[in-house]
Amino acid sequence: MPLTGNTFGLAELLDAVDDVLAWVKDREGRYLWVNRAFQLRYALEHATSNRKSVEKEILGKTDYDLSPAFLADSFRLDDEQALAGKRVVDRIERVGEFHGPAQWYVTNKIPIFDGRGRVVGTAGLTRALPQVGRESKFALVIEYLRDHFQELVTNKQLAAVSKMSLRAFERQFLASFHLTPQKYLRRLRLGIASRALIYGNDSLADVALNCGFGDQSHFTREFRRQFGRTPREYREHYKSGAAVFRTKSAGSKQ
Asked: Per-residue pLDDT tens for 144-189?
């Protein structure tokens, strides 16, 4: 799936946007194109200044080459949704180590079709949450969920934040995100919990409570449903690999 001005005419435009990371991948998850902001982020994290060298290090690689395995698995799950013809809409996620520098981002992904209507790859973009377009009627709702995910949040509260009636809010939220507000909140909590399991040392019970789950049993059920592993299995499977990846990344900066 070669990228040309005809097949991806927005490339030059997205290169000019400093606060948006954008990319295109093939069906196997290999990066075919990334915008300038993506390259600059990668160069900053890897202490690289040569743009051609950065492109060489990224293009043709997958997330498994560039990120810890647990993050790459998460990215791939989203990619598989897009490859199935679905969209990932305004997924809020925390980028950066759980106890280190981190930022809230909003990610969107879409499938890419060829002339015959076949899905041949995916495209995506992500940007820092405080700068997400506030023209969106759900921008304040997304920020509210980010700031209050540890608490009991009702649809009535979210409707009030959005200045809609409860019925209109629930209907329009589902139409926009393809998830109910409570399912969206649950996925947000599970994503945050997955990072806490890898980058932190809190007990499973504390992770559950800190991420808004009523008890550890509820947390374990929902976590296994989302990730296919219990929280304990997830931590054991990924934590050593994340530590090795951080050590390698630190070595590349020296």
From this structure: 998 999 999 999 999 999 999 999 999 999 988 888 999 999 999 9
Q: Are 48 and 54 in contact (CB under 8 A)?
A: yes
Query: What tokens does 83 get?
Result: 């490859």
Low-confidence ranges of the chain (pLDDT < 70): 1-9, 45-52, 94-103, 130-136, 240-254
96: left (phi over 0), alpha (psi -120 to 50) or beta: left
Q: How far apart are CA 83 and CA 87, in angstroms?
A: 9
Q: Three-class SS of residue 24?
A: strand
What is the DSSP code string of 53-107? HHHHHHTT--HHHHS-HHHHHHHHHHHHHHHTT--EEEEEEEES-TTSS-EEEEE
| Six token digits for residue 204 | 């499973």
For residue 122, give the nearest of 108, 136, 109, 105 by alpha carbon: 109
Q: What angle do CA 149, 175, 136 make, to 5 degrees?
A: 65
C-alpha to C-alpha distance for 38 and 105, rounded to whole angstroms: 14
- Complete domains list, the chain, with CATH: 1-132 (3.30.450.20)
